[in-house]
Task: structure prediction
Amino acid sequence: MTRGFVVGRFQPFHCGHRALVDHVVEEVDELVVGVGSADVSHTTQDPFTAGERVLMVSRAVDHLDVPTYVVPIQDIDRNAVWAGHVRSMVPPLDVVYTNNPLVVRLFEEESGVAVRQSPMFDRDRFEGTDIRRAMVAGDPWRDRVPDPVVDVIEEVDGADRLRTVAGDDAAEN
Ligand code: NAP
Result:
């Protein structure tokens, strides 16, 4: 039995993230998706709440045969204990999939868990920063996120929220 872990901010969860999850579930028996920076929302970089992102991910992975658990994880001030913090919040893990060098390092220093590279797919189209930019600009973005994520974003009037906070952030700078 191998339980894998994927972590990201998922602002929003896009088709590249879904392709990554589809790839990882080929290698594991169960999957845990950590919704990182769970304490952050309503900013240009992090517009969606943890609860909204849990909905996005849960609905977008609903088609999987592999049991999948979606867990929000707050950031903490001390990187040195973050991997332990994560492990205290999620089911027991065997392998962590990430491309973030800091996340690799923190989990490698934590014993008992393997770390594997996680590919990202069609990065030119599926990139959170550019999808958020498109929402602010009123450019097309719906074809770059799974349909259930479109529904969540529309339910919370997410594009309008993002335009509001982007305007606010710009006014402050
Ligand atoms: P992230 O903030 O979600 O992603 C960082 C950048 O990497 C984004 O541009 C993201 O693109 C990109 N990316 C994500 N997965 C990728 C992949 N497979 N290939 C290429 N690029 C990829 O960071 P993360 O590393 O995925 O998630 C780490 C989470 O853990 C964050 O919430 C972070 O705050 C948290 N963390 C917290 C602490 C602490 O609290 N002390 C320490 C370490 C990490 P997209 O925007 O398109 O996803």
User: Anything to note?
Assistant: The chain has a mean pLDDT of 95. Residues 3-165 form a domain with the Rossmann fold fold (CATH 3.40.50.620).
